[in-house]
Amino acid sequence: MISEKDVEFYKENGYLLVKKVFNAEEVAEMRTALDGILQRAAESKYDRNSAWNNDFLSPEEMKKLVLKGFHDVHYQDAAFTRAAVHPNMRAVLSKLIGPNVQLHHSKMLVKPPENGAAFPMHQDQPYFPHVSHTMMAGSLHLDDADEENGCLHVIPGSHKNGPMPHVGSHFLSHKEYPISMGTPCPAEAGDVLFFNYLTVHGSNVNRSSRTRRNVLYQFRDPMDLPEKNVHVNWGQGLMICGHNPTYVEYRPDMARLEPAKA
Ligand SMILES: O=C(O)CCC(=O)C(=O)O
């Protein structure tokens, strides 16, 4: 699925867009699954707007923005378990992280038309710091994404800075790191953008008339242990490729998982 040149590109730039990881039928199945999650959330007490708060837009504009973001999608619909272990995903992950690859967590990020919320530039590392920084996102596109509907932007090579000081709730200063500083990564439905958790990234507001639906997985080498027992999720540690040499010594403290609140 990817060449040695692609692996070199990832090492140098901290990201890699892989085209056509999923075919149209698989994308259609995941869209249906995702719509089901949204529908069930809307009918439950757990529905919410997950738009990130930040001061880069006026409070009035912020209030209008919506992001439907829910974690643990592979615990909500088997389509997302199949996607995580899809042969094409495994072919890429075993080259970028491999030979052993473990799932850390999954989530969905739906930016509705006209008012889909932005993600100011940030690294993911502060949320779940690990020792060797093998952690990488695979952001699976369920819609064509471009600058109009809020595609991802990355700063090539920024992973080489190591962990950077973040302000407040884990953003970089938008004055120093505006979203426009990043390289836009337009993608088609079925493509996956892989990026290291140290790669500075973000995405703009969806101002178009089209939805932007992405499912984002985080993967790591199982030997790369967390610095803190934080961001523990259901299904954490599921093996995607190879084997787990740390199974006996290390398991996340699942007791930290909070039961769903009624
Ligand atoms: O999907 C996006 O636009 C950005 C997601 C993101 O930056 C994140 O979840 O850390």
UniProtKB/TrEMBL annotation:
InterPro entries linked to this entry: Phytyl_CoA_dOase-like
Oxidoreductase listed as a keyword: yes
Top-level taxon in the UniProt lineage: Bacteria
Name of the protein: Phytanoyl-CoA dioxygenase family protein
UniProt KW keywords: Dioxygenase, Oxidoreductase
GO molecular function, one term: iron ion binding
Signal sequence region: none
